[in-house]
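FAQ

Q: What does a record look like?
A: Structure on top, sequence underneath. For example:
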């Protein structure tokens, strides 16, 4: 398969596939004319990488998962360890996003949104104030 067909089937832009080749995640064969020739195995790796990246795994995480995917003697515990670590990172991001949401919600509610120049949103962004504690307002 050429890069265009492979890209369409894997759901990745050709530029991403070239990048993955550059950093050694995939190693397509080359035709006599020098063009990339992707095999089914390459397509499976690229699909794997697309799905892992869609779940937010870093390139290093993808590299580790791909190595385990290709290792028939792997222990599923190793895969689970990587996935659990990533899940913990996602959960921390969720906490951070909820805090950001609460702070911004508070600032938006405080702003009159009228013709006056006074704006609690701008004041809040420029101050070194403590984040809003939303735990008190939740049931």
């Amino acid at each position: 398969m050429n890069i265009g067909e492979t890209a369409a089937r894997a759901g990745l832009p050709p530029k991403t596939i070239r990048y993955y080749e550059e950093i050694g995640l995939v190693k397509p064969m080359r035709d006599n004319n020098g063009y990339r020739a992707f095999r089914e195995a390459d397509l499976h790796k690229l699909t794997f990488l697309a799905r892992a990246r869609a779940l937010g795994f870093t390139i290093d995480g993808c590299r580790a998962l791909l190595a385990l995917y290709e290792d028939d003697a792997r222990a599923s515990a190793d895969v689970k360890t990587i996935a659990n670590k990533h899940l913990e990172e996602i959960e921390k991001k969720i906490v951070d996003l909820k805090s950001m949401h609460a702070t911004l919600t508070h600032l938006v509610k405080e702003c009159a949104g009228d013709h006056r120049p006074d704006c609690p949103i701008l004041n809040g962004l420029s101050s070194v104030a403590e984040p809003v504690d939303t735990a008190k307002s939740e049931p």
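Q: Is there anything notable about this one?
A: The longest helix spans residues 76-110.
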